[in-house]
Amino acid sequence: MDSSSIEKLRTTVRGVVLCPGEHGYDAARTIPNAMIDRRPAVIARCTGTADVIACVRFARDYDLVVAVHGGGHSVAGKSVCDGGLMIDLSAMKGIRVDPSRRTVRAETGLTLGEFDRETQAFGLATTLGVVSKTGIAGLTLGGGWGHLHAKYGLALDNVIGADVVTADGRYLTASANENADLFWGVRGGGGNFGIVTSLEYRLHELGPVFGGAVFYPAAKAEEVLRFFREFSRTIPDELVIQCGSLTLPDNMPVFAVAACYCGHPSEGEKILKPLRSFGSPVADAMAEMSYLQLQGMFDPFFPPGRQTYVKSNFIRDLNDDAVRALAEFVGKSPSPYSFAPFVEHWHGAATRVGITDTAFPHRQHTYNLMFWSNWESPSESEKNIQWTRTCWKVLRPFLVEGSYGNYLSDEGDTFARAAYGPNYDRLVVLKNKYDPTNVFHMNNNIKPTK
Ligand SMILES: Cc1cc2nc3c(=O)[nH]c(=O)nc-3n(C[C@H](O)[C@H](O)[C@H](O)COP(=O)(O)OP(=O)(O)OC[C@H]3O[C@@H](n4cnc5c(N)ncnc54)[C@H](O)[C@@H]3O)c2cc1C
């Protein structure tokens, strides 16, 4: 881009505009997954909706590729483009809790940790993910599985309104009463229809929780997985569990079960007793704790700057054959930083929503499998990616076609499309209406047909 166009952008937006070579440019284009090394022609760090509107119009005037950066945690690196304009929302951190209505209006540059901190000041919370640096925007627009999903639904099930800047630079409000088609689409359709500048969520009362993790020797994975499966069939909506292979900081490979009980902590302690007394765990880190403590529990395992590659699909049936196949890979990742394999249990409120009630279709599956591989040096990339793909190939017969889109590495259109399941055709109609020229395509893309 020539300097006069950049100057024009600088005079139109209030936030910082960064070009290659300028101080802050490299930091702004760097995201947690170090495999992604892209160089936008220009980055605009927006301060509010007016900046977002200006950026969308600028990108259209100059026919620029657009990437939208919320919290930057898309493993596929969808928040950064090569060339083009990166619209960076990370400075948009306004948030206002309304304790009497139990709602919150939050700008989309917030991270989960920042959001939780504000709502917990009022003894309130809503479902978000389990790593506090993740952005609320990408997570919510694509789903939002977390510690409260079984009691209160996914993050997107708690959205009651969204402010959206569409591809033509218009500002629309989407809710059950206004632009209801768009409201349906943004809850699961990711950033396909425009840039969401703020989200309004329903909140719920939440005090201390009972949770943490129990760690078993990796060699016991098959037994623990079977126990996990049977235990998961009996648990109430207040309890969310997941399990998987990881390596402790002292280099010991373990199979862990993590949990959060969001009802009364003493009840949680009782319900979790069988899990904690099963077999001989090598460590038990479950206790009553604040929700904020629990939400930061996984943070040390996900420092920025590692290479990350993920394969993930819902499991058709966690039968004994699947359990055996999974257990084979426990403790075998070439990297000590991987969470692979890992199984999330999906149940309760999130699975009682109809498949077509929101754009997010994955309501009928009970277990979500991921091989979340992390490693440090680019020289180890081939080995780790190959290992991840091999695991996935072996497990394939036990998996359904569709994946949770928020966990996808960049695997092309077929996978992106499968992530929308039976809602895809209706999403195409919306895409034709709100973004017919596919300005917003750095996402699990819904292709316009007009
Ligand atoms: C360490 C880690 C932990 C995770 N844990 C969980 C978890 O517990 N539960 C869970 O459900 N998911 C989890 N995820 C997946 C997470 O939901 C996705 O990576 C999500 O995309 C992150 O959102 P973001 O805003 O940080 O990402 P970004 O990379 O900024 O954005 C992701 C996508 O959303 C688009 N987008 C972002 N903001 C906006 C906006 N305001 N308007 C329109 N489009 C926008 C981007 O263009 C991009 O396509 C995790 C990911 C990581 C890396």
Describe what you observe in this structure.
A hairpin with a 5-residue loop joins strand 8 (159-165) and strand 9. 28% of the residues lie in helices and 23% in strands. With 450 residues, it is an alpha+beta fold. The model has no long low-confidence stretch (mean pLDDT 97). The protein contains 15 helices and 18 strands. It has helices at 3-12, 25-29, 49-61, 112-120, 136-142, 149-152, 180-186, 221-232, 265-271, 273-277, 291-295, 320-327, 381-395, 413-418, 424-434, and strands spanning 17-18, 42-45, 66-69, 85-88, 95-98, 103-107, 124-125, 159-165, 171-174, 195-202, 204-205, 209-217, 239-247, 253-261, 283-289, 307-315, 339-345, 367-375. The longest helix has 15 residues, at 381-395. It has a seven-stranded antiparallel β-sheet. A five-stranded antiparallel β-sheet has the order 5-6-10-8-9. Strands 1-2-4-3 form a four-stranded mixed β-sheet. Helix 8 (221-232) crosses helix 12 (320-327). Bound molecules: flavin-adenine dinucleotide. Flavin-adenine dinucleotide (FAD) is lined by residues 32, 68-75, 78-79, 89, 108, 129-131, 134-135, 137-139, 141-146, 190-191, 195-196, 302, 406-407, 442-443. Flavin-adenine dinucleotide binds next to strand 3, helix 5 and strand 10.
Radius of gyration: 21 Å
Mean pLDDT: 97
* Helix content, binned percent: 25-40%
Q: What kind of sheet is the major sheet?
A: 7 strands, antiparallel
Ligand inventory reads: flavin-adenine dinucleotide
Quick summary:
The chain has 450 residues and is of the alpha+beta class.
